[in-house]
Design brief:
Elements lengths: L5 H6 L11 H4 L3 H15 L3 H14 L3 H23 L1
Length: 88
Amino acid sequence: MTTQISWFADMTDHDPDDRSSSDDATRMSQKDLTTMAILLESRHGIHAKGMAEFFASVHAKLGDAERCDAWDDVANIVKKREQVRLAA
């Protein structure tokens, strides 16, 4: 069982402040976020929003606000795309 969750143990050593680039350079574009949302939807269907929220919570727990915000944005994009599909 430890081999299944060993990736999380490796992530806890992550230092989110260990970056040499500026915030603007690491900020993801709307196109990138939408692409991530579409890929997540294609791979995981109705679970895409939940998976994006999970990734956001993992990065929040690790103290990586940029990645947390990016995954939160992806979850919101998936939610909006789902609402558009259901309204049609």
